[in-house]
Write a sequence for this structure.
């Protein structure tokens, strides 16, 4: 059976088939949405209880590393915007094999996030069973399936729909945090008692200072804090579908550090000044704990709606990202050809459909092991995030080396303090990987699963597709060196290439 290769124009510029309809406000909110999620709204409570106010230091340090990762990605994006994002850059700077490994690793990372977020939506919806019995009566797996199907369908419509969804999801999260920051600050400034205690730095000193439980708990929670910043790299994928990335992207990326300082560091510091860290717990949002302490009725309902929004936002981003990454892989011969298909609205529906099929694993988990579905999914995402961030830095370092040799040119928007900042970021990610490995049993088993299961699958996958990938690369290189126009090269390839 004969089949033509993808167009050379499309393979060298995967974003060519997309619609550049994401506006600056969409990009800004995608950046915000990636930097604010359930890691803050839900996870900060347990971490405050464990590490105390020193958690502020963890969020600040991890936030700085996350910002450096974004700046490294921003330099790559401004050099060549591409909806394949750093998967495309990995292929260019580190080789075809690295592009294949990174592409499928990142795709698996977001596919597992789909499992996590569908489960989270189901859990949050069942919470309302306290007030509306119907919500508790519906099985968790049904709620997870409803969330998955709804967000899946919306992603197939157009990238503008995705952008609008992220805009409003992010706006809800930001509004909730702004309300907390304003109310909490007023309580501290006016000295209004909270749960019978006067808030402020005196309260923090009375409860043991920054390290009430010692230094070790701070070290142990750092890995969880890093994953709270996961998804900020999504802004690189969105660059291929915005009309003016040269102007929009630097603004969005630079503003992330301010949001991190305000929303993450500021919120955790304020929480520490309002209540003793022992008042918070892993089973309750710290914001609910505060509003309940000042007698606000329905605070748990409002905050549950906010974390529900955060989960839907992440699920929405997962479908968006994996669809583009899968298409980028397919255009290089590293994924099934179906993943390269794009509908009339410029949406890579092939990759999104494949992701949706894999995300159904989450529905199975929610049916048979509903109490463990969330934990299983979240553990599987951790390794993927570390690999993705490390590859972004490695690509930027290679660009820096090529520029020094006069083989390439860095854009004006650059990674600050490169290459030393890149080396520091890689060292930090290595420490996090080591902490994960030593975190028995959860982290150890996660890393073990990656070594025993994922790596052999990637090796097998590369062996199956490497000939086709190299053929596509050779055709592309030959066309460029001979000066043959892209469409003519594609026509020649159509007559010769067969399915292997």
């Amino acid at each position: 059976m004969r089949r033509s290769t993808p167009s050379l124009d499309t393979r060298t510029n995967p974003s060519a088939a997309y619609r550049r309809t994401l506006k600056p406000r969409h990009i800004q909110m995608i950046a915000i949405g990636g930097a604010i999620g359930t890691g803050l709204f839900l996870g900060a409570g347990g971490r405050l209880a464990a590490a105390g106010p020193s958690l502020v230091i963890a969020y600040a340090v991890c936030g700085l590393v996350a910002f450096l990762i974004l700046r490294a990605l921003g330099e790559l994006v401004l050099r060549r915007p591409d909806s394949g994002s750093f998967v495309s850059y990995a292929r260019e700077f580190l080789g075809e094999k690295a592009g294949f490994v990174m592409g499928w690793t990142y795709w698996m990372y977001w596919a597992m996030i789909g499992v996590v977020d569908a489960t989270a939506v189901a859990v949050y919806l069942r919470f309302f069973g306290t007030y509306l019995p119907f919500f508790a009566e519906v099985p968790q797996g049904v709620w997870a399936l409803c969330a998955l199907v709804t967000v899946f369908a919306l992603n197939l419509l157009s990238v503008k729909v995705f952008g609008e969804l992220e805009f409003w999801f992010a706006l809800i999260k930001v509004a909730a945090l702004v309300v907390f920051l304003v109310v909490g600050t007023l309580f501290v400034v006016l000295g209004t008692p909270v749960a019978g205690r006067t808030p402020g730095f005196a309260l923090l000193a009375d409860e043991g200072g920054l390290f009430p439980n010692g230094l070790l708990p701070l070290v142990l929670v750092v890995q969880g804090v890093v994953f709270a910043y996961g998804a900020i790299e999504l802004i690189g994928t969105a660059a291929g579908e915005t009309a003016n990335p040269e102007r929009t992207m630097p603004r969005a990326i630079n503003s992330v550090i301010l949001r991190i300082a305000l929303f993450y560091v500021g919120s955790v510091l304020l929480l520490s000044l309002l209540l003793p860290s022992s008042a918070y717990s892993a089973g309750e949002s710290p914001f609910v704990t505060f509003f309940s302490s000042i007698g606000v009725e329905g605070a748990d309902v409002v905050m549950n709606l906010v974390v529900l929004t955060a989960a839907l936002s992440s699920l929405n981003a997962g479908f968006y990202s994996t669809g583009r990454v899968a298409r980028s892989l397919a255009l290089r011969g590293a994924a099934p050809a179906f993943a390269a298909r794009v509908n009339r609205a410029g949406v890579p529906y092939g990759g999104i459909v494949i992701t949706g099929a894999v995300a159904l694993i989450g529905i199975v988990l929610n049916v048979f092991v509903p109490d463990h579905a969330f934990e299983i999914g979240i553990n599987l995402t951790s390794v993927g995030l570390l690999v993705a961030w490390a590859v972004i830095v490695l690509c930027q370092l290679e660009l820096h080396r090529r520029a020094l040799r006069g083989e390439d040119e860095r854009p004006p928007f650059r990674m600050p303090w490169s290459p030393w900042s890149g080396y520091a970021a890689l060292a930090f990610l290595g420490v996090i990987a080591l902490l994960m490995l030593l975190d028995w049993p959860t982290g150890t088993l996660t890393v073990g699963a990656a070594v025993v299961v994922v790596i052999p699958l990637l090796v097998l996958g590369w062996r199956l597709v490497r000939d086709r990938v190299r053929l596509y690369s050779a055709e592309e290189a030959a066309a460029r060196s001979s000066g043959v126009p892209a469409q003519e090269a594609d026509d020649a390839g159509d007559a010769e290439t067969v399915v292997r």
Q: What stands out?
A: The longest helix spans residues 442-482.
